[in-house]
C-alpha cells in the first residue's frame, strides 16, 4: 500500500491552482469539471507520477470549520519536503509568498510556514 493522493481544502480552486503552480512550482495533473467544482490535482515536477495533491473545495461546513480552526491555531494543513530550506524560503519570499514563520530549527528538522492565500498555512521542512 502507498499514498497516492492527499488533499488541502481551498476557498477558491482557480486561485489555489495559480498559487500552487506559479508560486510553488507544482504542475497541474488533473483538471476534471464536476459541475460547480473540479477534481483538481497538482504534482511535484520532480515526481510527476507520484503523490497528487487535491485542491479540494471547502464548501462543506465541516471542512470549512476544520480549515478555519487549524489556521487560527497556526497549525499547517500539510508539509512539503525541501532539500535546501533557506534557498526555498528566499525564492518563495521573492515571489511574494508571505511567511508566518521563517526557517526554524526544531531538533533534527528545520521548518518554515507560509500562508497559501487559500485558507491554509503550509509548512516546508528540511531533514
Mean pLDDT: 97
Rg, Cα atoms, Å: 14 Å
Which percent bin holds the helix content? 25-40%
Order the strands across the largest sheet as they lie in space. Answer: 1-4-3-2
Query: In one word, what is the shape?
Result: globular
CATH topology, by name, is 2,3-Dihydroxybiphenyl 1,2-Dioxygenase, domain 1
Distance separating the two termini: 24 Å
What CATH architecture label applies?
Answer: Roll
Q: Report the CATH C-level class.
A: Alpha Beta
Indicate the proportion of strand residues: 35-45%
State the CATH superfamily name: 2,3-Dihydroxybiphenyl 1,2-Dioxygenase, domain 1
What is the β-strand count? 8
Helical stretch count?
A: 3
Q: How many structural domains in the coordinates?
A: 1
Reading the helices and strands in chain order gives EHEEEHEHEEE
Decide which structural class fits the backbone: alpha/beta
Sheet having the most strands: 4 strands, mixed
